[in-house]
Design goal:
Elements: E1 9-13, H1 17-26, E2 31-35, E3 48-49, H2 52-56, E4 60-63, H3 70-77, E5 86-89, H4 95-104, E6 110-116, E7 135-142, H5 146-157, E8 160-163, H6 166-176, H7 178-189, H8 200-213, H9 217-224, H10 229-249
């Protein structure tokens, strides 16, 4: 197996839509346990539900809870994690989650903050074909094995791996992700938009809106807690006001 040995175990804390998506794609390469008080039986074949202590004994632990639950999850996990365990989060912002991971988890574990720039709506159905070319950001906090993780993700899933600091990630994501969700929110309110006489560009806009329509509420919350999001929104609204003025004077 490229990058990582086959015998590794992987635990998932938080088994909602993205946790289950991760399990489905990673199952061929890891022995996977999942923990979520709201889920009693795994819908992914070969993945067993377990208590938190068992999940925290895995070699790699992925925290897939909403940002609002990250502090609580880390505090519950902290006394259960073994030295050398690699802990990863998948929150949509990175500055605040990175601060939480560094503050709440013990110094004897490795930390890698991540942001898969895709979700259940955009990834497609096929393993390999569904992920090829999609982007994933890695923010190494305390992760000597980050290069091995990147090599594995490239080789097995064809992901485009971007390495950045949490600050670099949030500066760019405030625009690339934040504005996408902002525009989608506005268009979703206009539920009587035409669907018959359309241009290709309009069809692409609607496709982008559909890709975020069913995002979990926690995704929007994480995007809004990006420390650069308010500035991105302000700049966008200022430019829209300028466009409105230009149209009014035409």
């Amino acid at each position: 197996m490229t990058g990582l040995p086959k015998t590794l175990s992987l635990g998932i804390v938080g088994y909602g839509a993205f946790g289950q998506l991760s399990a489905r794609f990673l199952r061929p390469w890891f022995r996977i346990l999942a923990h979520d008080p709201q889920v009693t039986e795994s819908p992914v074949e070969g993945v067993a539900m377990a208590d938190l202590s068992a999940v925290c004994r895995c070699d790699i632990v992925v925290i897939a809870v909403p940002l609002s639950a990250l502090v609580q999850a880390c505090r519950a996990m902290a006394p259960l994690l073994r030295p050398g365990t690699l802990v990863m989060d998948v929150c949509s912002s990175k500055v605040l989650p990175a601060e939480i991971l560094l503050r709440e988890l013990p110094p004897h574990v490795d930390l890698l903050a991540t942001h898969p720039m895709f979700g259940p709506q955009s990834i497609g159905a096929g393993i390999g074909a569904g992920t090829k070319g999609l982007k994933m950001v890695l923010c190494p906090l305390r992760a000597p094995g980050a290069k091995r993780v990147a090599a594995f993700l490239r080789a097995r899933f064809g992901l485009s791996i971007l390495v950045a600091s949490p600050e670099e990630h949030d500066r760019e994501a405030a625009f690339t992700q934040g504005l996408t969700h902002l525009i989608a929110k506005a268009l979703l309110r206009m539920d009587d938009l035409p669907g018959r006489i359309t241009t290709r560009s309009f069809d692409l806009i609607r496709q982008a809106v559909e890709m975020v329509r069913h995002d979990a509420p926690g995704v929007s919350h994480a995007i809004e807690t990006n420390p650069y999001a308010a500035g991105a929104r302000s700049r966008f609204f200022a430019e829209m006001d300028a466009v409105r003025r230009e149209l009014g004077s035409a």
